[in-house]
Amino acid sequence: MLRVGINGYGTIGKRVADAVRKQPDMEVQGVGKRSPDYVAVNADERDYAVYAADESRADGFREIGIDLAGTVDDLVAESDVIVDATPSGVGAENRPLYERHETPALFQGGEDATVAEVSFNARANYEEAEDADYVRVVSCNTTGLSRFLAPLHENYGVEKARVTLVRRGGDPDQTGRGPINDAVPDPVSIPSHHGPDVQTVFPELDIDTVGLKVPTTMMHVHSVNVTLEERPDDVEDVTELYRNEDRVLTIPDYAGIDGAGTLKDLAQDAGRPRGDIWENCLWEESLTLQGQDLYCMQAIHQEADVVPENVDALRALEGELSSAESRAITNETLGIDLTHLHGRTDLTADRRTPDESLADD
Ligand SMILES: NC(=O)C1=CN([C@@H]2O[C@H](COP(=O)(O)OP(=O)(O)OC[C@H]3O[C@@H](n4cnc5c(N)ncnc54)[C@H](OP(=O)(O)O)[C@@H]3O)[C@@H](O)[C@H]2O)C=CC1
Ligand SMILES: O=C(OP(=O)(O)O)[C@H](O)COP(=O)(O)O
Fold first, then answer.
1. 10: CA distance to ligand 1 center in Å?
2. What is the homologous superfamily of the domain 140-305 according to CATH?
3. Closest ligand 1 atom to the C-alpha of 143?
4. Which of 2, 116, 148, 277 is in Cβ range 3.0-4.6 Å of 136 for a Cys bridge?
């Protein structure tokens, strides 16, 4: 059993903890938490051992009935590997602590790529993490773009990718980012940081990205245009390619899923924890071919898509399972499977009004 310590129990850390707990080959050693607040209570209620990130606040944990298991220093010493899910920039400050204990670590996409030896996406470059001690799981947007681009890259070649990222303004718990009523070029400089970040996974790829933020907490939406080196025979071939990707949910036209709100509703109806959507959500109807150019739109649940990638990155560091083997276990244990949407598509031919049916009979 791989003992995994999670340092930083916020939006990403709490989801990674729950995902690790579901794996047959891993266990959660404990979680590092700084503030003794409702999220700390939630960790305690879920029976995670809580370690203090800031010793000066240890009394605050005791006052709310949380019996600390130690400090983050202890957590690092007792774990086989650390998932650092602290805010952007704090991970880099933590790296010397992990080095001191010779404990390998994963970092998140808010860190600069230089924090680790490898920037990781399970679908695109799993093998590169096998000999590493420090790995950065790329950000939610970069994860979504890597999953989207990998099959195109392999099957048709990518001459040039251009992406407009309509970014959610903040996560639901980030009350400090609102209320807002605006659409803000963010970053206003072009290209945005996302293009260079995708190149940490696909070094040769020619990609330009621009970003803006809008007042929603639900999901990011990408408008993508890719010039392919080789033209697919038919757009249906591309649709089929994505239907066969394990972490891409292709949205069939009949489903009536018209935006991030209906996607979240779908996830909640499906009983997903926290309404999480781990897959890229790609509208089939938006897949369009014009000459060598492919267009499409996809939505990315920023709180969730990096979670299975963290689990796979832990296995990549171990070096015992292949990408396909690890992804299969992660998908199965988390329940990454909304293919029931496609099990219904055959019925669309019979979607006639009662009057039409009677007329035919
Ligand atoms: N949120 C998102 O949409 C995504 C975020 N990421 C990346 O994941 C990383 C984490 O982001 P996110 O989960 O949103 O962050 P959160 O702010 O939600 O959580 C951060 C956690 O780290 C703790 N923390 C803060 N400062 C320190 C410190 N000095 N030492 C130890 N722990 C500390 C916080 O403690 P406390 O609250 O107790 O003070 C909290 O538990 C970032 O790199 C981010 O860019 C990647 C993909 C998507
Ligand atoms: O990694 C993320 O986004 P990014 O890919 O746009 O950098 C997360 O959604 C965090 O974004 P934020 O920088 O708006 O907090």
1. 5
2. Dihydrodipicolinate Reductase; domain 2 (3.30.360.10)
3. 47
4. 116
